[in-house]
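It would be a great kindness if you could assist me with a short task in structural biology. The full record is reproduced below for your convenience:
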Amino acid sequence: MQIGPQIIAAFLTGLAVLLVFMAIWVLLQQHDPVEERLSQYGVTTGSVAPALGDTRLRYTRSRLERFLAAFGLGPQLALALTRADLPLTAAEFILVVIALAGLGFAIGTLRVGLLFGAILAAVFVVLAIAYLRMRQRRRLRAFTQQLPDVLTLLIGSLRAGYGFNQAIEVVVDRASAPASVEFERVMRAVNLGIPLQRALQDAVERVGSDDFNMVVVAVNIQAETGGNLVETLEIISDTVRDRLRLLSEIRVMTAQQRFTGYILGLLPFVVAILIFLLNPDYVGDLFQPGWIRILPITAVVLQLLGFYVISRIVDIEV
């Protein structure tokens, strides 16, 4: 007995809907706020007995996290989620990506066929990863833009006679997110008994900024060997300001090239989707069995390769 494409599509649709609801449930479930705060600093609690459903969910997460750790993906993905400020664990993000891939595969299979479903599933996965990286870059850019003002607050507080911990509290009170959030985490870690140097180094890992790493290295060296921390922070502040000014000038000069890359990268996909919505049979001929399938696959690969080359050309590091 042969299984028809309608049965396969119906099964995939049901699986995709199930995964989507699982992802929504994971995103909307309630967590213990105390346990969440302590888990940010490596402290876990077991004072509250979890419910049966919560226990099963934690078991599933732990198994998935072990599977990711076996391939070295768990810690890297968790760090990426932290830098993107997404309130998800690595296992939860994988569940969301699987749900999106299943949904795209079901939609593509129902509309055209298995090959188009696989392509659409890959597109959804790429979009999820692209969104994660976009959140990382946006948060890193916002923190870097705030860093000179943060250093100004630290320098002013130290000159006023405050200690370094008190200067960080001034930054928490007067700065905006994400800088205030990261320094607030530093102060919470210090209040929990973690040394200041380690708390600052953990903040560097969460942010991923080379400029902030330079500040933390200067603070750690001053704590071990002594010296004038104010003058060091002033030099670093001037360096960061000059770097940001030069980076802004480069972004202005390469704006046209970046915009051209976006247009060239997105225009073929947008046109293909519009034609597919107007006349599905016209685009469906490209996915018929045979050598004709090589054409859309080659076009997508070359398009992505061209967009990557253009993005690397205009990505000038300072």
Q: What stands out?
A: The first helix runs from residue 5 to 28. Residues 30-35, 42-54 have pLDDT under 50 and may be disordered.
